[in-house]
Amino acid sequence: MSVANWCVLAACALPVLTVGMAKASAGMKSPRKGGYDNHNPRQWLGQLTGWQQRAVAAQANGFEALPLFIAAVLMAQQAHADQSSIDHLAIGFVVARVVYVAMYLMDIAVVRSLVWALGFGLCVAIMALAG
Length: 131
Hints:
By secondary structure, this protein is mainly alpha-helical. The chain contains five helices and no strands. The chain has helices at residues 3-24, 41-46, 50-78, 83-105, 109-128. Helix 1 (3-24) runs antiparallel to helix 3 (50-78), helix 3 (50-78) runs antiparallel to helix 4 (83-105) and helix 3 (50-78) runs parallel beside helix 5.
């Protein structure tokens, strides 16, 4: 499996890990005391505030970014583009997404938006390799 394919897997796992932080922050509290409610998780997530709420938003954005990234990697690989170039750009995308999540959690909106644009640009660059 190529590095880019591992990056696809990492990009798929990142949104799950992101919201997992919000869920874990509830600790071992019971749902009645504000702990994670697995019987009604969407309602529980909707009641979060602060960084936990931003983690949920970052998770949603992570899932929204996946189709373009996955398509870009597959397009470039199907076109037999240079795998090393695909790999490097894919690593850049995953790094950008990790930084994006960090900026979202820390509520640094301008930098977050710039990092989002970088990630989008990396997807476009991967697609461009398909020629």
